[in-house]
Amino acid sequence: MQPVLRLRGISKSFPGVKALSDVQLDLYPGQVTALIGENGAGKSTIVKVLTGIYQPDAGTIEIDGRAARFPSADAAAQAGVTAIHQETVLFDELSVAENIWLGHAPRGRFGLINRAAMRDGARRLLDGIGAKIDPDARLGDLGIASRHMVAIARALSIEARVVILDEPTAALSHKEIQELYELVETLKAQGKAILFISHKFDEIFRIADRYTVFRDGQFVGEGAMAEVNEGQLVQMMVGRSVDQIFPVRDRNIGAPVLTVSGYSHPTEFADIGFTLHRGEILGFYGLVGAGRSEVMQALFGITTPSKGACKIAGQVRVIRSTAEAVEAGIVYVPEDRGRQGAVKGLPIFQNVTLPSLGAVSRAGFLRMADEFSLARDYTQRLDLRAAALDQDVGLLSGGNQQKVVIAKWLATKPRVIILDEPTKGIDIGSKAAVHAFMAELAAQGLAIIMVSSEIPEVLGMSDRVIVMREGRIVDEVAGDRMTPETLVRAAAGLAVAA
Ligand SMILES: Nc1ncnc2c1ncn2[C@@H]1O[C@H](COP(=O)(O)OP(=O)(O)OP(=O)(O)O)[C@@H](O)[C@H]1O
Ligand SMILES: [Mg+2]
Fold first, then answer.
1. Among the atoms of ligand 1, which is closest to the Cα of residue 427?
2. Contact (CB, 8 A) for 279 and 443
3. 10 has which bridge partners?
4. Could you tell me if the CB of 21 is within 6 A of ligand 1?
5. Tens-digit pLDDT profile for residues 338-389
6. Residue 52 Cβ < 6 Å to ligand 1
7. How far is Cα 490 from Cα 39, in angstroms, rounded to an integer?
């Protein structure tokens, strides 16, 4: 079969980084190719080369066997290549329909933009992917999952032959992920060539026909999914085998640090009560939408519970703002680190030390050397891949930006840290580093709440697991009961097997 798109010898350097070095990639009609590699391997960079955002330093692009060049994003779109990027480029101030049609709006007589056609077209595209979103809504008023659906509708509005999805499911709920898989099937059936980037192996094995692996900006190999197993892919990706063994739990669980009782919210959750101890990792499991993140947001003062009490280190505290939470020693690393996380334009080290300036300033002066060493310590432990710590955080790969956000909150040395999906978007090799660091901090007495939808992570890391369903705690699992089956059944509201 002839590839629709064929890249050969593509290289791309940035100051201090060779992001891509002589890589190749082939995409075939009606097939999904998974692009796999660690954080910083060059996946998003090749996507940007393919969509005319970056110009390669060397190499060739062929479409249907003919040489092509994409000097601009428009040129790539004209040639039928469209992408949904990891950090989606949409405009908050514009409506949903305007975002979908920006740059290629349907035009009527005299070349005027046809607003009615825009709205109808937007509605049809959104309906087609099962998204119930008003085309007239202002984009800035939508949640992340809906924004993602808008980005997908936009990609579909461009008559594309090649569709690129860069970590599309990272921000979606379970139901939306199913819808996205169906969408990918539809695109395949239409003969489109699809490039799919993901760190989730179950997903890759489910929807990809082929794979291509990059490591450190280099092409490592490609082939049919049917002919590899997970271990082989990981080996190609990381250059060594990674056993999914979690750090040994040799922690001393100490006195209670956080006691929550009767926490309720008018719409999101009710009667939440639990105790968290020094040195403990408490897992929160549930289906997406079970209310876990909402509880965490209330504990961090982003929202205020309508009822209930919270005791921190023996003192009853009312937390009405994030400042009060930080002051009480609670910090929260949200799931949506893109929007609430890294401060682009600032160097990595300042991003890390921003909230802990007290610890690195003496007599009111900021000591750059201290700032640097604090940042170096925390980012190294999280396996950050960066050219230098004074580099702009906005230039890091998506997964590496997430590591900076985690480092930043850990560096504040809180009493309690809440990590919401800590390893989402983080590659399989770096995951082990993040887990090891969490275990080490717990051993030093930090109390950790970990919200995770990944069962191996929840079971491998937690001392106890609280299961939530429809805004309530439905089970607390420890010891011998910590099994996948118990968690899944409790989260789904099924009777527990005797
Ligand atoms: N505009 C830029 N300026 C400087 N460096 C850059 C720029 N864009 C990317 N890089 C660097 O190129 C390398 C590859 O980054 P890329 O975003 O392609 O990684 P990725 O494989 O998508 O990783 P992730 O899984 O974390 O999303 C990284 O070292 C990154 O810091
Ligand atoms: Mg990326």
1. 25
2. yes
3. 23
4. no
5. 556 788 888 999 899 887 766 555 555 566 777 888 889 989 988 898 888 9
6. no
7. 34
Question: Are both 5-238 and 256-492 of the same fold?
Answer: yes
Identify which of 207, 166, 203, 228 has the alpha carbon closest to the alpha carbon of residue 35: 166
- Stated pTM of the model: 0.79
The two tokens of residue 318 are 């009312």
Pocket test for ligand 1, best of 12, 13, 17, 403 (most atoms within 8 A of CB): 17
CB of 168 within 6 A of ligand 1: the answer is no
Q: Which ligand is nearest to the CA of 41?
A: 1
Residue located nearest, by CA, to atom 7 of ligand 1: 395
CATH of the structural domain 5-238, one choice from 3.40.50.10860, 3.40.930.10, 3.40.50.300, 3.30.360.10: 3.40.50.300
**Whole-number average pLDDT of the chain:** 88
- Does ligand 1 have an atom closer than 6 angstroms to the CB of 379? no
Question: Structural domain boundaries of the chain?
Answer: 5-238, 256-492
Strand, helix or coil for residue 377: helix
CA distances from 397 to 83, 162, 212, 400, 427 (A): 17, 23, 18, 5, 11
Q: Is 221 exposed, middle or buried (0-12, 13-18, 19+ CB in 10 A)?
A: middle
Instruction: Report whether 219 contacts 212 (CB < 8 A).
Output: yes
Read off the pLDDT band of 462 (50, 70, 90).
Answer: very high
Q: Give the closest ligand to the alpha carbon of residue 198.
A: 1
- Indicate the CATH number for domain 256-492: 3.40.50.300
Q: Which residue matches tokens 């997903």?
A: 203
- Two tokens at 457? 């992570």
DSSP category for residue 392: B
User: pLDDT tens for residues 396-416?
Assistant: 988 899 899 999 988 888 999
**Helix, strand, coil abundance in the chain, percent, nearest 5:** 40, 25, 35
d(C-alpha 326, C-alpha 309), whole Å = 17
Whether the CB-CB separation of 330 and 416 falls below 8 Å is answered with yes
**Ligand 1 pocket mutation pick from 46, 238, 397 by most atoms within 8 angstroms of CB:** 397
Mean pLDDT within 457-483: 94
Cα of 215 to ligand 2 centre, how many Å?
13
What DSSP string describes 86-145? Answer: SS----TTSBHHHHHHTTS--B-GGG-B-HHHHHHHHHHHHHHTT----TTSBGGGS-HH
Please indicate whether residue 423, judged by its CB atom, sits closer than 6 Å to ligand 1: no
Mutation test residue for ligand 1: of 10, 18, 23, 45, the one with most atoms within 8 Å of CB = 45
Q: Is the CB of 45 under 6 A from ligand 1?
A: yes
Quick one: which ligand is closest to 217's CA?
Answer: 1
Atom of ligand 1 nearest to the CA of 40: 19
